[in-house]
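User: Show me an example of a complex going from sequences to structure tokens.

Assistant: Sure. Here are the input components:
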Amino acid sequence: MGQRVGLEVSLACSEAVKLANVDVIAAYPITPQTHIVEHLSELVADGHLDAEFVPVESEHTAMSACVGSSAAGARTFTSSAAQGLALMHEILFIASSLRLPIVMAVANRSLSGPISIWNDHSDIMAERDINWIQYFAENGQEVLDLTIAAFKIAEDKRVTLPVAVNLDGFVLTHVIEPIDMPDQKEVDAYLPPFAPQQKLDIANPISMGLVGVPEIYTEAKKACQVALEESYGVIKEHWDGFAKQFGRQYNPIETYKADDAEILLVTMGSLGETCMSAVDQMRADGLKVGQVRIRLWRPFPADDFLAAVKGAKSLVVMDRALQPGSASGPVATELKSLLFDRGKQMYVSNFVAGLGGRDVTRADFAGMVKKTMEAQSAGQQMACEMWGVKE
Amino acid sequence: MTPPTTAAVQPVHPQDHLLRTDRIPHIWCSGCGIGIVFGALMAAVMKSGTPLDDVAVVSGIGCTGRMAGYIKLDSFHTTHGRAIPFATGLKLARPQGKVVVASGDGDLLAIGGNHFIHAARRNMDLTIICVNNFNYGMTGGQLAPSTPFGAKTTTTPLGSPDEPFNFCALAAACGATYVARWTALHVRRLTNAITEAMNKKGFSFVEVIAPCPTAFGRRNKIRRALDLLRFYYDRSVVKNQLDPGEATIDFDHSLAVGKFLDIERPTFLDHYEMVNRGEVEAWPATGVDASAAGKRKAG
């Protein structure tokens, strides 16, 4: 067994990357991701991690270098946030379409402008359609565990896709938490060395990244999309395997006091823990409230979600990013589309909250539930609301 | 306790009219060189004689990038690396104004490096002030394109394995018409350089070697701001008119400072207007002998 240590969550992420024994890290500094890669550079410099650390000149270069190293068969990691993630944009599609199992920690931060270094999900929501596996951690332990698992999932022959592990900037990256640090032996037993199915190899030359003419482009995209959809089963398998090895279970959709709940709050990321506390408070006040937490965002675990909400009458959906010009935020859009497709009638309210680092408190959750209940009992349909806008 | 009584006369700094005083206190660390450069810029704006309505200051992201927020002129704080392209658009839309770009080494020459070389190539009429503190200060001191070989940063704890750019040589090689370098302790000469650069038509580049005691100095055992300022100043050797290719930043032998280049060359707008007026001859000027095409002399 490993040991419990007090560690900044960014450093826990770096330690996970060390335990995964990566070969190449290419990164560019950006708040609030910086501590992750700084600690990795120390681990490499001190000889604790036998890897190449490449401090490049931009995020566009960082992701490009990751594509190169992954294509050469190296286990590859990077980390970014906000503007940096946006600057990687075109290469993110290249990484997934070349089926390169890069792992990236995204220290979620709002996109400019106005310039903001604080937390929300506008960065990753702008990259929703990059065909990467995308999931969210809620606390430091989850960051460590899900980063280790990310390599296992990404490199599985049935998947071979990149994975983005999302952790909320500052709220997670800059706090010190107790972390159960696994032994190297345990991690080695769970995560074997990277054995790519194909790589750039002078002994066996292949070409990568070539033109897809109209006759094959659609099929190439289809293959990539199918791989993402089918990764669902592998993700579950490797999260279950993680539980066997380390004793901590992760699921695509998780619930809290949801079984008999009439109203379910839906959260993603670190807001989930505040929300749990809010649920406790509302339960104490006699409200039949529960919570559904979306851990796996892409591929979206539709059946798990429907199973989790089947007994409830209404959903209060939290979004931490805007979808301007649309009727809902990105998460609510996803859920409403799913409910419609499956013929499930539910009352759905949608709140966009916690933008640019603004706190969302227990009282905020209670306020959203109250507002939803009032509108529902009055038979009013609710428009998506930006919560707490100062007039 | 009663608060201390304020003096009846509030002292006013002579540059206050150029400062968004409501934004003060600023975010720069004590001992940072950016404040000196900022003061020099404000002095140069006045000295250049340009009407204040005709000056715009553009900066990117980073510690130096904050200048755009503190100066009380038309200013724009762009995204990381994009100060020069933004300034290019501004200059083309309002060619009569002076556009000053003030940003850091990481912003201008790493993530924004491509824009730097192309604006110099086109000879865009911009004044570029680069505060070179040898690292990314705002994010805590990572490797930058200026970090000296062997110097420690948070991402190169054993010392940088990279060779840094020589920004002045790069600017000159790419087509700049004015190139100067001073340290933050050469305040008067720096102010004069920025003034000249503002009044120069063409791509003008002023590099300022500035102390970052908090991030760079601390990791390289020169922790005190004055020591770092002195370290750069003492090693500097004034070599005006020196070939920019030889204007090395060599901390052991000679850290060349001075005005290295001041030449005339048509700007992008000069050439653009010539093309639009139809004053440019067909290319190639020597013409092509169509009858010779495809024929080669044997032997």
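The lines above are the inputs; the final block is the predicted structure for all two components together. The mean pLDDT of chain A is 97.
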